[in-house]
From TrEMBL, chains A, B:
Pfam families: ACT (PF01842), Homoserine_dh (PF00742), NAD_binding_3 (PF03447)
Key word Metal-binding present: no
Species this protein is from: Sphingomonas corticis
Record keywords: Amino-acid biosynthesis, Methionine biosynthesis, NADP, Oxidoreductase, Threonine biosynthesis
Gene3D superfamilies from the UniProt entry: 3.30.70.260, Dihydrodipicolinate Reductase, domain 2 (3.30.360.10), NAD(P)-binding Rossmann-like Domain (3.40.50.720)
Family, as annotated: Belongs to the homoserine dehydrogenase family.
Domain ACT: 354-428
Signal peptide start-end: none
EC number from the UniProt entry: 1.1.1.3
Domain of life from the UniProt record: Bacteria
Pathway(s): Amino-acid biosynthesis; L-methionine biosynthesis via de novo pathway; L-homoserine from L-aspartate: step 3/3; Amino-acid biosynthesis; L-threonine biosynthesis; L-threonine from L-aspartate: step 3/5
Name of the featured protein: Homoserine dehydrogenase
Chain coiled-coil ranges: none
């Protein structure tokens, strides 16, 4: 069955950072178990990285060292594993060269897949070789497999997820310790949970890369990263999280993708998540994805979204699949069958909103905000004004009734430049 | 890729109850989508069921009708789907005949797999055909795939799960509405969430079947249903759930399997689950499984555990895998490589316990219970006595410190037959 035989699956590994070294550790530590499950041994035979001399805590002497990343594609291997990162450059060159050479390709590179996934899937299918990327989305959680195979009998209507562990760590900590964003970010950086330049994470770009991949898999559409609406978390205050909690919500950075009548809708944005929703219980650096299918209903996949062990676990799961003879197109159906994503226009989208204004403490401010809402046709469900912040501003938090999002945008437009506002308003969506 | 070609995968279907009719509905409704994902059409060509005339809401006229279940194995098909149920009888005869005929076999039959899974896996491997059973555990949740493939790079230490939707529905409703067991069971039966004879569900047998399958997959051991310790939920009172809630726990029927130094430990039992544990948030008929791996950490799979749509979704996911050319042994590694489960002796197991006594309302009762605990070496963390119940008994609830479970058993043994007790004590484990 599967024709796997007992010949080892030979691997070349590009990138020996945390995850790359982790892959070697997984293959060493669980060697016998993996061979039994895979039907044959999995053996790294060649490696490359920027710095040959750095101590990574694993013995590299047994592997061939190849200086030029792209030439790894010429090594005598079955599969090349790419853990270099970056949407273009050496990673993309290696992917193209590997697939052109008729070898399998495994990667954790979400940025590359979000930008070039279609091209790479076409190349893999043309060559008849596997292209796999479980580690690219939600770290150790087998959610690519869960959507591509586990939920394959279903037409999926919606996929939502907490896809960035750094943001979830920060938001959870802000909530638990009632601290503000900048303060918690600094601590996360000191602990290694956030990068020195954290913008890809905290501004939602990393989550958007992952969402574009999930959407393609879920809805049979071409990956369309440039049509993801992207927002981040850096303007959220501890006071926003406290207001949300008082209303029965938790604040999370959530990616939402929906296959609608007007094409694919994709957005990464801060959301108020009802406390009885599965994503509300996801704390710390954990990731989670909820998929809604027309027969299965709502599935939840949850687990560690990053880190050496979980990410390496996902890479090696892909290798085991390949060793077993796993077949099938990378994005669940042939690249040629993937539909165009259509317009990402969400202007007729409806929902409830949380709006928070920092305003000057003087007569008439509330009336001005309320009038802007009324004139734009936004119906207010609740409004709370709390005492002054450190800089003397007053916070006004509004929850709207369900209505068109474009009305909310119009209301904010009407208030733009108002002397009453002491800062940019914050708009968070309420997850329905 | 995968050599699937475009020839249809032909299916014979045994059993046209809720799930069987659901499989036909899924294949009809999502026909085009499934063909794109599977690489070829999936077509039911022959069916069998007890009653040919019953209206199931699907057109059966297009399928060959075969009266004798076992003879379905002789139909000109690639795969037989068994949804008849029962650990032996026609289901087992069909499984044996199908595999002997060199055809693939897909089943939702947890009882048959728990009792005969090893034999069937050996037969499938000998014939070089797939044996798949995603629908047998946790309904629509792709947890078999998640453990067998998604977590395949890991040595798993422990698998815990809420595996019976009927029990979880009852316990959730008892908690939310502060009602007692018998009352809620009657309502669940009226609503169709519980069988007329509910004992397989509420006494833990159904969950134990599923746990034995998960344990085999997770730990590379032969399925060992007869070594699962089994308890149910019928003696739990609304008062127990209220005490648990006051202590920060929820009451759930949890299956626990661990690969320990002394062999496999498997138990289905009512547990107090800490409110910050993922299983505490699983309400209603939902199922969930937590797997703990040595690299990935803790993974959670959650979703609908039963019902027509979810279960049919899992059956069809197996068929799509087969159509794609999915390969590999049924229990993650070859049957010949599965280890013996070893002794199921949990006598040196340690943990914390919740004990509840219904006692006569008179002097000296508490002293008697406390003395029995002391004499057995059980250390008490908290003890609460609440006012009398309807029958005049008083409830005494004890939470122990961590200690050997055998000491708790000894304490209960000391109290056996005591005139102070007006009913059997209740023992629930506290999930660590």
């Amino acid at each position: 069955m599967g024709g796997t035989g007992s010949r080892a699956l030979r691997i070349a590994l590009a990138g020996l950072g945390t995850v790359g070294a982790g892959v070697i550790r997984v293959l060493d530590t669980n060697r016998e178990l993996i061979a039994r499950r895979a039907g044959r041994p999995i053996e790294v035979v060649a490696v490359t990285a920027r710095d040959r001399t750095k101590d990574r805590g694993v013995d590299l002497g047994r592997f061939a060292w190849i200086d030029d990343t792209t030439r790894l594609a010429e090594a005598e291997v079955d599969v090349v594993v790419e853990l270099v990162g970056g949407s273009d450059g050496p990673a993309l060159a290696l992917a193209r060269a590997t697939l052109a050479a008729g070898k399998g390709f495994v990667t954790a590179n979400k940025a590359m897949l979000a930008h070039h996934g279609l091209e790479l899937a076409e190349a893999a299918e043309a060559a008849g070789v596997p292209l796999k990327f479980e580690a690219a989305v939600a770290g150790g959680i087998p959610v690519i497999k869960g959507l591509r195979e586990g939920a394959a009998a279903n037409e999926l209507a919606r996929v939502t997820g907490i896809l960035n562990g750094t943001c979830n760590f920060i938001l959870s900590k802000m909530e638990a310790e009632k601290r503000d964003f900048a303060d918690v970010l600094a601590e996360a950086q000191a602990l290694g949970f956030a990068e020195a330049d954290p913008s890809f994470d905290i501004d939602g770009v990393d989550a958007a890369h992952k969402l574009a991949i999930l959407a393609s898999l879920s809805f049979g559409t071409k990956p369309a990263f440039d049509r993801v609406g992207i927002g981040g978390i850096r303007h959220i205050l501890a006071a926003d999280i406290a207001e949300a909690a008082a209303l029965g919500y938790r604040v999370r950075l959530v990616g939402v993708a929906e296959a609608g009548a007007h094409g694919l809708f994709q957005r990464v944005h801060a959301h108020l998540v009802p406390q009885d929703h599965p994503l509300a219980h996801v704390t710390g650096a954990t990731n989670a994805v909820v998929a809604e299918g027309n027969f299965v209903g709502r599935l939840l996949f949850q687990g560690p979204g990053a880190g050496e062990g979980p990410t390496a676990s996902a890479v090696v799961a892909d290798l085991i699949d390949i060793a077993r003879g796993e077949a099938g197109p990378p994005f669940a159906m042939p690249a040629a069958a993937l539909a165009d994503a259509g317009e990402a226009d969400g202007s007729d989208r409806r929902g409830r909103a949380y709006l928070r204004f920092a305003v000057a403490d003087r007569v008439g401010v509330l009336a001005e905000i309320a009038a802007a809402m009324r004139d734009a046709g936004v119906s207010i469900e609740s409004l709370i004004q709390r005492g002054a912040t450190a800089d003397g501003s007053v916070l006004v938090a509004i929850v709207t009734h369900e209505g068109p999002e474009r009305c909310v945008a119009q209301a904010l437009e009407r208030l733009r430049g108002s002397q009453s506002l002491t800062g940019e308003p914050l708009w968070m969506h309420i997850l329905g």
